[in-house]
# Entry
Amino acid sequence: MEEKYIICEDSLEGIFTAIYDAYALREGHERLHVQVGETDNYRLFATYLHSQPDFGKTEKVVRTLQSRLGEHVYGSICRAAASDGADKGDAVYHTVVDGITDGHGERTMENLRNPYVARTFALARRTANEVNHELEFIRFQELKQGILYARIGPENNVMPFVMPHFADRLAPEDFMIHDENRGLFGVHPARGEWYLVSGVEQEAEEMQEVVQYSDKEQQYQELFSLFHKTIAIKERGNKRLQQQMLPLRFREYMTEFQRREDSGS
Amino acid sequence: MEVKIAPQMSLMDKLKILADAAKYDVSCSSSGSSRKNDGTGIGNTVAAGLCHSFGADGRCISLLKILFTNECIYDCRYCINRRSNDVPRASFTPDEVCELTMEFYRRNYIEGLFLSSGILYSPNYTMELICETVHKLRTVHRFQGYVHVKAIPGADPLLIQRAGYLADRMSVNLEMATAEGLREMAPNKHRKTILKPMRQIQNGIVENKNELTLYKHAPHFCEAGQSTQMVVGALPESDYQVMSVAESLYEKFSLKRVYYSAFVNVNEDKQLPSITAGPPLLREHRLYQADWLLRFYGFKVDELLTKERPNFNMAIDPKADWAVRHLEVFPVEINRADYRLLLRVPGIGVKSARRIITARRFGNLTFEDLKKMGIVLKRALYFITCSGRMMYPTKLDETYIVQNLTYQNQMGKGERLPFLMDGTPYRQMSLFDEGQMLDDTRNFVNVCSSKTTGDSRITGNSVITGDSKITGNSVITGDSKITGNSVITGDSRITGNSMITGDSKTEGVLYTA
# Structure
């Protein structure tokens, strides 16, 4: 029998809908694959099906995964689906098969002998690591209106995992996180519920002109840069370790690594 | 009358002086405390802690680490802020500390505040200032992030208790591993006055736990426990002494962490060792590795070190060192060994041991599976079998394994040290201390003065710097580099492209290719 590829949108909804469609085909799972986004390398003797994100199907899949696999496995699957791995659709789909059809349930993520589970595990860890980095390295800047604004450029779609942390931590603050790679905004009104805004890429370009910083912002940036410089022990200087712990790609967005024209003292 | 030395000092100047003065305190963790925001202010804490930045020395910056003041009535030899030093002095006001903490925290620069202080007027006066500051931060600003404060030895127990209810973590620095060392280094400090608040905090935490089981909303006392730090390398104390002290602190005082601080001679005090070679970072690294073995791997100090063997092997890490000296335990069968035994295998950590335990329920694991789970096979392969087979045919032999593990090191593929080996001379490698493993068929780096006696065989690309003395009939093959004043006596045979610079003396017959 020939292989079948289900092509879906690069989103949690897209992948879950594709999984629903794959199950609906009622064919052997080993010959079915979920492919995120169009491929430019079509295979001969394979059928390609397209799947449109569907809210109802997604909801059913979410419900099934949560009840049959538990929050832990469901969390790993969501993180893997948010990663930038090109093969994430297939990894997640076959992990679901391992959990539901093969019946490993809440212990699915422990079955690392299954290559798809191992891949989902690796992708989920990749996202989790970047989420953790962003929790640490995000730098807010205070705008004139008192809103805190941060820019990030993550490889994986970390926003859904980053927002709850800051929504709790900075509950009384208005803040906004801007994922420049995806044109995605995480918005949190003070003491309110956070939400995501996407598809405003056009405005993102103009963003830099719109943002105006508060009067005190510059002063605190300088104070922190000074602190950052002062706290290092000269005799222990170790740039290599610093770079290992704080990869260069984050520094573009970090206050203490910005070159300053008038660096105070 | 209040005398102010610099009345018009800006916040910038103060931060510079007081962050600079606080940087030698090692503790910077923000872990151990897990608290949600209660909606009245900003802040929460995360159990695992978060590191918000990393300094040019590669150390994590998690907390706003500052001294309240660097004025001090004490005169400790190792301390930059000692009374007899002529350094610029400054003091924050409680409001300034609060402002900095709140504004830094909002911008996600920091995870919280680390507040220490020099002793201003008296321990009580200082402790009260610290309490007042943190109290203001917690009540006026409703700050719910992480706070680490120092307990000042000699302060009133009531003040320490008050601080404990405000802070997540408290610490009292032990400073030196031995009581005699402390007397010598810090004439105003005594072991007893340091241990007293430590005990008080420990008891406070235990009582608080009981309280919390009865009353869910009782205030927390030092939720994240307490820590301490010791300076290593200022006095000739052995690793065995240091680790024994650490072990008893963990066991008898239930500390969360003991920090080790490689000595930096900031005062150029004549009675202290000069560290032209830089702080003893490798030694510090080995101590931390051993510390982890104590806390997470079920090791005891007596397993790692003994009175006869009081220092760690600088060439291989303490766990590998233990493993090669206990080959009777190995090889360990991955599909059967229990958790405790898996933890003893070099290359398997806490996480990967857990993964092995859970994954093997689904079927036998292979080396390929292990690789995906994050086991460091290049270290583990000498000690494990999968379904009764080893990965490669290897010898279960101490010298052979040590050679291979250290060979990888020289190739830059082995143990990942957090700093470069090159150009950083460490103290003498104990490879040679014990007069063992002289017949070395491998590449080795020998930095600093060493003495190799007996017939040596050094093959591979070796680098020998420092004043070395190699006696006996030596054979050095491969591309070797010997710098420094080396003395090689006996009939030596050096083949390969070797470079010998410095005033080296070779006595006896020297064969070079």
User: Anything to note?
Assistant: The first strand of chain A starts at residue 3 and ends at 8. Chain A has nine helices and eight strands. The longest helix of chain A spans residues 55-81. Chain A touches chain B through 59 residues (CB under 8 Å).
